[in-house]
Design brief:
Layout: E1 4-7, H1 8-11, H2 18-21, E2 30-33, H3 43-54, H4 56-69, H5 73-85, H6 89-102, H7 108-124, H8 128-144, H9 149-169, H10 173-186, H11 191-203, H12 207-220, H13 225-233
Antiparallel strand pairs: 1-2
Length: 235
């Protein structure tokens, strides 16, 4: 499958606390992210996305020129990445919201992907409540979408993880666990969800429940180094 080249601090899912991994892009962060279906991948987008991390001002100039010729998801998304890298989060949010409106409703994977990015930009615009609300509205949309239940569950779990990471970053650990409980009910064997919940349990000093989640991970994947390290902390 083709891939988007992006600033991973902006786009990629991770198990680091929300405030850390949404803090901005650097050259070292540029790496592939999963490419949602339906995205028109071009060499110019690849170049612009890489430029967004190395020289965001030039990426904005290039995107503006492309947008003057034709409005497109690729050009707007690239400009959003560059704006994000420059710390211009309000402007990045506006572009991402426009991209969301441009995505065909049938392309739920791409819409889910962009929606989570929008929430990160909203949070860094000092609008965490708006970020949570945006994700909740997307969850509501997923519930009534015509997608098959397997896809809906996968995308909803990703969105709930996004909400949990945001809550965790603000010390809302009980609410984070609630989000993760829901996500895990949709995707019971997802290691990232279990690991994140274990980390939040540790923050709540509930070591027994943390050990339970980490043991579940290690039972299916004994080579999960992070889970093994976290389990040592949960003793």
């Amino acid at each position: 499958m083709k891939r988007l080249i992006t600033a991973c601090a902006f786009l990629c899912a991770t198990t680091l606390p929300y405030a850390s991994w949404a803090a901005g892009a650097t050259e070292a962060d540029v790496s592939p992210a999963p490419q949602p279906s339906g995205f028109v991948y071009t060499e110019s987008y690849r170049e612009c996305a890489a430029l967004a991390a190395k020289n965001p001002q030039q990426a904005i100039t290039n995107s503006n020129a492309a947008l003057a010729a034709q409005d497109s998801i690729a050009s707007r998304h690239c400009r959003a990445m560059a704006l994000y890298a420059m710390g211009r989060y309000d402007e990045a949010t506006r572009d991402l919201l426009t991209v969301e409106r441009m995505v065909p409703p049938s392309d739920l994977a791409l819409l889910n992907y962009i929606t989570r990015q929008t929430a990160r930009a909203l949070n860094l615009s000092k609008k965490p409540d708006a970020a949570l609300q945006h994700l909740q509205e997307h969850l509501n949309f997923l519930r009534v979408s015509g997608a098959n239940s397997s896809l809906r569950s996968k995308l909803a779990a990703e969105t709930l993880l996004e909400r949990a990471l945001l809550r965790e970053s603000y010390g809302q650990y009980t609410q984070a666990v609630q989000e993760l409980d829901h996500a895990i009910s949709l995707s019971p064997t997802n290691e990232e969800l279990l690991y994140t919940r274990a980390r939040v349990f540790i923050a709540l000093s509930d070591m027994a429940l943390a050990r339970q989640d980490l043991t579940a991970i290690l039972t299916s994947n004994p080579d999960h180094t992070l889970a093994r390290e976290l389990l040592a902390r949960a003793q």
